[in-house]
Design brief:
This protein has 161 residues and is of the alpha+beta class. It has a domain of 53 residues. Helices cover 42% and strands 17% of the residues. It has 3 helices and 5 strands; from the N terminus they run H-H-H-E-E-E-E-E. It has a 5-stranded mixed sheet. It starts with a helix and ends in a 5-residue tail after the last strand.
């Protein structure tokens, strides 16, 4: 076979191969979405009429809301019960007053340094590292209720690791 014969033979086979669809990739034909339709053209007079109507409607709404605001009766608010918070404040001030009176008498009361392994009796004074001077109000099951300047705190005594 000569070169020209080979070229002719390959030219005959190429279009035949191109015409066959390949098995590996399938071409999917996509349709373009339809073009959006343009809105109908309105005359200038029609557009200005619509704008004027919209402005008139807005003015009516604005006037009616301002009239309602001016004529509305003042709203009465219910008074909240302050008795609960007042009672809590009175309790805090009572505890602070009690602590202050006990602290003034601290010279007469023997003060022990607080240690959770120690045993403490009721109505004695303790000196805590962080909380400061305190007075033991109750001792129930080695749980101390101590009155400090910041309020009542619960501490542990007679701790056995």
């Amino acid at each position: 076979m000569t070169i020209s014969q080979k070229a002719k033979a390959s030219a005959k086979t190429l279009p035949a191969q191109a015409a066959k669809p390949s098995r590996k990739s399938k071409a999917v034909a996509l349709k373009a979405p339809p073009a959006p339709k343009a809105p109908p053209v309105k005359s200038a007079n029609n557009a200005t009429d619509q704008v004027a109507k919209a402005k008139a409607a807005l003015n009516k709404i604005h006037k009616s809301t301002t009239a309602e605001v001016k004529t509305a009766a003042p709203v009465k608010t219910k008074s909240r019960k302050i008795s609960v918070s007042a009672a809590a404040n009175e309790a805090v001030t009572a505890l602070a007053a009690k602590w202050l009176s006990l602290f003034k008498k601290a010279d007469q009361i023997e003060t022990k340094p607080y240690n959770m392994k120690s045993v403490f009796a009721e109505k004695t004074a303790v000196q805590h590292k962080i909380l400061g001077w305190g007075y033991i109000l109750t001792n129930r099951n080695d749980r101390l209720e101590v009155l400090f300047k910041d309020g009542i705190k619960h501490l542990i005594s007679n701790y056995k690791p």
